[in-house]
Design brief:
The protein is an alpha+beta fold. The protein has helices at residues 7-17, 24-32, 54-62, 79-89, 109-118, 134-147, 151-157, 240-244, 268-273, 283-294, 304-313, 387-410, 420-429, 484-489, 510-517, 520-529, 535-544; strands at 41-43, 69-71, 97-99, 124-126, 197-200, 205-209, 224-226, 229-232, 266-267, 315-319, 324-326, 335-341, 344-346, 351-353, 358-359, 374-376, 380-386, 431-435, 440-442, 450-464, 470-476, 481-482, 496-509.
Length: 545
């Protein structure tokens, strides 16, 4: 219902109700466009609205039926605050364009995708620099393309009658079909020079072969190496010898000792040979599970390929009203559950659970008895993942990451003298980061605290000449290192490093590097000073000094 008062009065009233200070720029804008029926563009670029300020702003949007464009670029918004706006826009009849760029809304990917499907009139959405997972960026771009396609074309293209429920794991070598085009080739670098082979048909795609190497993956700090045999995921158990080393204590009655907590250990061969089960799901079901796992701390560190491994491995577990999923003190529980439909009750805090909620997280870490009873209060559809599959996915991701990063680190000149074990230590410390075309990876004149290895794409180095004019120095491609000397010698950067196209890097902080390397750092600095590849760096540094 459209308010009869001016928009600025609606905004001020809501701010007063929430005990918030009104945003002066927004108040002035609403005064200039006070009639809700004539207000078509809400431009608040770089206005620092903030998460709390979204609540009164959403109230204004509700009063503007003719609004066609909303610009919220650079407003320090959060996923939770943006989702309130997205929910309102699902039924808005005029909205055409939405700009959410430069806000950290990494968890809003599923909600933006859902909005585009619910409101096909929305044909433009900007999400640059939002830290969204690349998989959701691709899905959103695909849906935008669909929203921009005339309805007649969609009807003609869909006449082939593809089965939208048939899909499988990217990289599993098995056929994948969706009702829309989903290209996962650029989500993670391939394990060999041959990239994933994708055959596209009439609004379908098929992954024929792919074996990606993920830079964005879980690292198991408990891995151990003995000769050529590697075990992953094992925890060191306490032994009687540990107790023998402790001084004798006076005898007294004490509670029984807590049983040792441990998880299964897997050999390198077992990890290599593991193939997760693929359970077909519709596009809607897969998208739902992706959104849930993206918000779960056990899964959100995984690369897109590993996350799809997990999604495809989930199996459907229907329950009738009154059924128990599991009961208190059930032994050796090993299953994690996601609720897709229906409602359940758990005795843990006497809570109700509904669609999108999860339970059984702890069972993915190690076997133990349940401490709660979960029962269905209506007919339910659950999706379940077992611990063994989860562990193999994580361990395989860790192994791929280690092997790829170690190979990259071996190419860094000043690290060439490090041993295999030292390189593995550094590989475990690397963290994945993504940049869009033209975005600055390293900025000239800032403290050089990060070392970057290019995992995907290419970057260019822009230096300065004697007159402080920008000059292109060189380019770095996949597998090459940038920013290492400022990082190593702890001083300001001497050039800009800019992404050419979409770029993914593996980066390491100096403090973590020093903790890993210790006294080796002085030797590395000495080696770096003599390398010809760093001549521009030495000349620039001498000029600065």
């Amino acid at each position: 219902m459209v308010a009869k008062v001016g928009l600025h009065e609606v905004y001020r009233s809501k701010c007063k109700e929430l005990n918030q200070k009104p945003n002066s720029s927004l108040v002035n804008l609403l005064k200039e466009n006070s009639n809700p029926l004539e207000f078509t563009k809400l431009d608040l670029k770089d206005n620092m609205i903030g998460a709390a300020g979204m609540v009164p702003l959403v109230e204004v949007v509700k009063q503007c039926p003719e609004l066609t464009e909303i610009v919220l670029r650079g407003n320090t918004l959060t996923s939770e605050s943006v989702n309130t706006l997205l929910e309102v826009l699902r039924t808005h009849k005029r909205i055409r364009s939405l700009d959410l760029s430069e806000n950290d809304i990494r968890l809003s990917g599923p909600d933006v995708l859902s909005l585009l499907k619910a409101n096909p009139q929305l044909t433009k959405v900007s999400i640059q620099d939002t830290n969204m997972r690349p998989l959701f960026v691709n899905l959103i771009n695909m849906q935008l393309k669909k929203n921009n396609t005339p309805a007649s074309c969609i009807r003609n293209n869909s006449s082939g009658g593809s089965d939208s429920r048939s899909n499988s794991l990217p990289g599993s070598g098995k056929r994948i079909e969706f009702s829309a085009e989903l290209d996962v080739r650029d989500q993670s670098p391939p394990s060999s020079p041959v990239a994933a082979s994708v055959v596209k048909g009439n609004n379908n795609f098929e992954v024929v072969e792919s074996d990606p190497k993920s830079p964005d993956s879980f690292c198991d700090e408990n891995s151990s190496r003995e000769g050529e045999h590697v075990t992953f995921g094992a925890f060191t158990a306490f032994t009687d010898d540990d107790d023998a080393q402790q001084p004798a204590a006076p005898l007294k009655k004490v509670a029984s000792r807590r049983p040792t907590v441990c998880a299964e250990a897997y050999s390198e061969e077992q990890i290599d040979n593991f193939r997760p089960e693929v359970n077909p799901k519709s596009e809607e079901e897969s998208s739902f599970l992706l959104g849930v796992l993206e918000r779960n701390q056990l899964f959100n560190h995984l690369d897109d390929y590993e996350l799809m491994d997990a999604v495809n491995a989930f199996s459907e577990r229907p329950r009738m009203m009154g059924d128990f999923v599991y009961e208190d003190e059930d032994e050796d529980m090993d299953t994690f559950f996601v609720i897709y439909e229906g409602n359940l009750h758990t005795t843990d805090g006497d809570r109700s659970l509904s669609k999108g909620d999860t339970f059984g997280d702890i069972f993915l870490l190690y076997p133990q008895a349940s401490t709660e009873t979960v029962s269905a209060t209506s007919d339910c559809v659950l999706y379940a993942l077992d611990r063994i599959t989860f562990k193999f996915i994580l361990n395989k991701a860790s192994k791929k990451k280690r092997a790829m990063y170690e190979g990259f680190l071996m190419k860094v000149p000043f690290l060439s003298t490090l041993s295999h074990i030292e390189l593995l230590q550094l590989a475990d410390a690397l963290k994945s980061s993504q940049y869009e075309d033209g975005q600055t990876v390293i900025k000239y004149g800032e403290e050089g605290t990060w070392l970057h290895i290019v995992v995907e794409g290419m970057v260019e180095v822009i230096g300065r000449d004697d007159s402080n004019n920008k000059i292109k120095v060189c380019e770095f491609k996949m597998g090459e290192c940038v920013g290492e000397l400022e990082f190593l010698n702890n001083h300001k950067t001497v050039a800009d490093v800019v992404a050419i196209g979409r770029v993914r890097t593996a980066k390491m902080n100096r403090r973590h590097f020093e903790m890993c390397m210790g006294p080796v750092i002085d030797i590395l600095r000495k080696n770096a000073d003599a390398l010809e590849v760093y001549s521009y760096y030495r000349e620039t540094l001498a000029r600065i000094k």
